Amino acid sequence: MKIAIASGKGGTGKTTLAVNLALRAAESTRVTLVDLDVEEPNSGIFIKGDLIREQQMFRLVPQWEKELCTRCGKCAEVCLYNAVLKLGETIMVLPQLCHSCHACSELCPVGALPMRDQPLGYLRHYRLGKLDFIESKLDIGVEMASPLIGQTLDYVRTNCPETNITFQDCPPGTSCAVINATKHADMVILVTEPTPFGLYDLSLAVDTMRHLGKSIAVVINRQGIGNEDVFRYCEAEKIPVWAVLPNRREIAELYSRGEIIYPKVEQFRQGLDAILQKLDALPRTI
Amino acid sequence: MKEIVIISGKGGTGKTSVAAALAFIVPKAVMADCDVDAADLHLILKPEIRTSEDFYSGVKAEIDPGMCIGCWECERVCRFNAISHASSIYKVNPLDCEGCGYCNQICPAQAISLPQQMVGQCFVSDTRFGCRLVHAKLGIGADNSGKLVAKVKKEAKKEALRTGMDYILVDGSPGIGCPVISSLSGADFVILVTEPTLSGLSDLQRVWQLTDQFKIPAGCLINKADLNPQITAQIKDFLDQQGIRHLDDLPYDEDFSQAITLGQSLVEIDPPKWKTRFDLIWQSIIKELS
Question: Which domain holds residue B83?
């Protein structure tokens, strides 16, 4: 069962929820936690496991072989991203615009644009008791997060077959990175806070997840700030609220130091257990 | 005209609260909300839309079932697994299609078209603070958020030139990927908003590495500075080492969520407490700009 933890707004508590939920669940079953916020992954700050594998991640981009090239210009003509340009007698490849579709490379009549590995970032796999933790970190300056997100999910599929439940800590927002991080999940938990910003961004995330056909539940974090509008919204939209977590300075301080919340804050642990019960009650087909 | 971009790496550190406070204070500015997939600045500035424009960028493949001969070539070449078939009916999954057009190139029956995609809408609005706001709404499931960011920035620049404004203030998105890179291009100054948590510090370091590649000068606001004085001190050491101007320490204060709840900027809900503070922050930014 794959559970994505997402939100429209950043900083609502996705990582806090994902890490604490995964560690709590791993007290009794095999769990995988994967940090898909590859631009700014933070789950690793909270999990001190043994590093069992580290690998560099790549994607394929074309590289111009000057000697083979006949300067026919087919490559530049087929590339809709303007990542391959013909400037006079030179072919120029702009890797930051390339989506690795292979069209230029395979349609080149003389094979002058072979696809070569280009670094994307690093994947690290840690183990702590019954928990497998995988994080990927995008190299600074790499524009596209989606290929690394996709490859990280492929890695989890191949390398964590024994797991009973996978939690996916997703990037904020509603753009393509979020879609790639959630599209194969069985269920999406949206974390929000009860403020107008939290509510507005939640509504965008709900629209996006419904567009993907996902079943969703909401967790409201920092209860105590803001107002009641987010509860009214969830009721009107018939979205189940699985837990309400308190706004407490103590929680913010524990988080700031990279500590786990639930062993120290009873109300938080109760919230986690309520979520785990809901997950347990889901039909086993997913 | 100077362009100032507010980013943070980590989400939820207070970018939009800072942007809204500066919108109130900075004279002769155009505001631009470049967090196009979770834009919130309009909830405070309450814009009245003057012009609205549909923004198109990129394509997605569509197969005409009447012309398709079921040869499997399109599915074979698609690197995004966006094409599948059941019996001999071929279909494109628009969520997976990245619009490369390879299938269209290779289809022997010319059964595949590439209609332009609407990425979202871009608006130019009046606000209750008197400044103009350029903002956008990314379409549901749309790609190309970086292109929409570039569009918002372009429109903001046009608006600033047209109306003789001195500053463009850009509210950026979290992360370090394409929308952030797109919002940094052409910027004169970057305001980094961070918080003293291990996550905040780690994300600040990564977003600074990116900003530094663009050689843009930067200043930093440490929000919730009293939450963890030890990490606040670590952040200040980092700022010193990197030559980033420390702009101010803001307290861990319920006024932030209170202002958002009231739909106001910090400067409005408690002027004696916040107005002078943000005036001073703006003065230090002006000093850095000159």
Answer: 61-114
Do A192 and A9 contact (CB within 8 A), yes or no? Answer: yes
Per-residue DSSP letters for A215-243? -EEEEEEEETBS-SHHHHHHHHTT--EEE
- B211 and B231: one domain? yes
CATH number of the domain where residue B96 is located: 3.30.70.20
| Selected residue of A101, A193, A208 to mutate for chain B interface (largest B Cβ count, 10 A) | A101
Q: Which residues of A touch B99 (CB under 8 A)?
A: 80
For the segment B161-209, what is each residue's pLDDT rounded down to a tens digit?
A: 999 999 999 999 999 999 999 999 999 999 999 999 999 999 999 999 9
B176 touches chain A (CB under 8 A): yes
Query: Is the confidence metric ipTM above 0.90 for this complex?
Result: yes
Q: Count structural domains, chain B.
A: 2
Question: Is any Cβ of chain A less than 8 angstroms from the Cβ of B178?
Answer: yes
Do residues B174 and B70 both lie within one domain? no
State the pLDDT at residue A285: 57
Angstroms from A208 CA to nearest CA on chain B: 6
B281 contact A CB<8A: no
Partners of B195 on chain A (C-beta within 8 Å) are: 256
Main-chain phi, psi angles of A169, to 5 degrees: -85, 115
Partner residues linked to A87 by β-bridges: A90
Chain B residues whose CB is inside 8 A of the A200 CB are 40, 43
Are B220 and B246 spatial neighbours (Cβ–Cβ below 8 Å)?
yes
Whole-model pTM: value is: 0.96
Query: Does the distance separating the beta carbons of A172 and B43 come in below 8 Å?
Result: no
| Statement to judge: residues B40 and B145 lie in one domain | yes
